[in-house]
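#lab-general

N.A. 3:47 PM
ok so I finally got the sequence cleaned up, no stray characters, all 191 residues accounted for. can someone with queue access submit it? mine expired

B.Y. 3:52 PM
send it over

N.A. 3:53 PM
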Amino acid sequence: KPEGTSGHWQTQYPQFETGETGSHAAADEEADEVEEYEARLATENSLESRLMEVNAALERITAGLTRELVIAVPPGSAKSLVASVLWPAAMWLRDPGLRILGIAHIPQISTRDALKMKDVVLSALYRELVQRLADEEGIGIDPETGKAWEIRSDQKEKTNYLNTVRGQRVTGSITGGVTGMRFKLDSDYLD
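B.Y. 4:20 PM
back already:
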């Protein structure tokens, strides 16, 4: 495993039969399992390292150290999940009034990511975190109700929604227009 990644992923070595069969077929099968394991291990370590780099880059954006980021990783590397779902949801924990623009090359991907973020934001664990931040640090208190912010009850849309402290997520695609809407975060526009 790359340095600093121990314990993040628990890789399982293949289980082999304990008895000797003397069969070339069994030995070949075991050799194939070892080869497959080694290939998976290299892929997992590579993916974990890349995700750690993506996370570090997103943290630099969050800290205001950089304003631009291109994430160039292979499809299926969890780039959209991290950058277009989890990171904006985490940003709302710190600044729930943030206006987020989620863009993808095609509308199906930006819709998928907006729905996943909404699911995260509505989850019991996330709501517990929001409540704790409101209670302990005064973050995200709705001035009208005096309670922790939530998705507005009139926001039934899949892709565009507001919260009760004026935070907003709007979703678009390269093929759709969103110019002039003044957003802080955009994500995933090149798939």
